[in-house]
């Protein structure tokens, strides 16, 4: 299942928190980032993979409509605002929908589903890509780096970042992403989520001690949510 990567932008903390909560309770959405500063948001949207922007209109420095013009041709936009007078301008900018604050989760979900249909239609028109089981490209700091799957030891998820620990490097590769997004790109026969914050390369699992995978001085617990799949992996390879 494709996840819709969402960015929420609003200079009002309570409004931003509400939208963040709505996104996190919707199974088909993945929160790529939240911003109270539209200028910072533009830089992120232009450098990351974003499908949908939930965008307030009245903000300092850069209004929502100005921001929508800057990212035109990119992600879909749903405006969220307390002012109905901007509705016409919003639709002229080809916004998917226009949510008038305060809006309910049901209204939010209806707008999001409309956006997801448009995103799915566009994806279906793209040429089919062959699944790559050898490597992926990761944006790390100011560079794009190729990571071979065979190099990965384990992956640690933070809040909005991941640390990719490689076999032959002492420092991890940092990338602005989520563990969920990365998990969807990894071959399931070679990598497994064993904890809310960890994915391991099954080929590197050598020692298990008291329900923890031992990587030198690092011990990664296999939590209850993931223990069944991990046991199946062990059973398939147990003598």
Kindly report the spatial arrangement of strands forming the biggest sheet.
Answer: 2-1-3-4-5
The whole-angstrom Rg is: 20 Å
Helix content: 25-40%
Shape: elongated
CATH architecture verdict of the largest domain? 3-Layer(aba) Sandwich
- CATH evolutionary superfamily of the largest domain: Response regulator
How is the main sheet built?
Answer: 5 strands, parallel
The top-level CATH class of the largest domain is: Alpha Beta
Number of structural units classed as domains: 2
Q: What are the secondary-structure elements, in order, as H or E?
A: EHEHEHEHEHEEEEEHEEEEEH
Mean pLDDT over all positions? 86
> Number of helical segments?
7
CATH topology of the largest domain: Rossmann fold
Brief account:
Helices cover 31% and strands 31% of the residues. The chain contains seven helices and 15 strands.
Q: Could you characterize what this model shows?
A:
By secondary structure, the protein is of the alpha/beta class. The chain has two domains: 4-124, 3-Layer(aba) Sandwich (Rossmann fold), CATH 3.40.50.2300; 135-236, Beta Barrel (OB fold (Dihydrolipoamide Acetyltransferase, E2P)). 31% of the residues lie in helices and 31% in strands. The chain contains seven helices and 15 strands. The chain has a five-stranded parallel β-sheet with strand order 2-1-3-4-5, sandwiched between helices. A five-stranded antiparallel β-sheet has the order 10-9-8-12-11. Strands 13-14-15 form a three-stranded antiparallel β-sheet, with no helix packed on it. The longest helix has 20 residues, at 105-124. The mean pLDDT is 86.
């Amino acid at each position: 299942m494709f996840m819709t990567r969402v960015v929420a932008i609003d200079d009002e903390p309570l409004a931003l928190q509400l939208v963040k909560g709505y996104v996190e309770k919707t199974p088909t959405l993945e929160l790529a980032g939240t911003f109270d500063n539209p200028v910072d948001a533009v830089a992120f949207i232009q450098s990351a993979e974003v499908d949908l922007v939930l965008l307030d209109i009245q903000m300092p420095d850069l209004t929502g409509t100005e921001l929508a013009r800057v990212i035109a041709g990119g992600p879909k936009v749903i405006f969220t605002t307390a002012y109905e007078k901007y509705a016409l301008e919003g639709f002229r900018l080809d916004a998917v929908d226009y949510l008038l604050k305060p809006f309910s989760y049901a209204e939010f979900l209806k707008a999001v589903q409309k956006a997801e249909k448009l995103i799915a239609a566009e994806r279906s028109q793209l040429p089919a890509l062959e699944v790559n089981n050898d490597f992926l490209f990761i944006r790390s700091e100011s560079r794009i780096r190729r990571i071979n799957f065979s190099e990965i030891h384990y992956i640690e998820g933070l809040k909005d970042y991941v640390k990719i620990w490689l076999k032959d490097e002492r420092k991890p590769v940092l990338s602005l992403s989520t563990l969920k997004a990365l998990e969807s790109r990894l071959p399931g026969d070679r990598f497994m989520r064993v904890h809310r914050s960890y994915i391991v390369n099954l080929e590197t699992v050598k020692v298990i001690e008291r329900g923890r995978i031992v990587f030198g001085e690092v011990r990664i617990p296999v939590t209850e949510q993931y223990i069944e799949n991990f046991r199946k992996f062990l059973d398939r390879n147990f003598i």
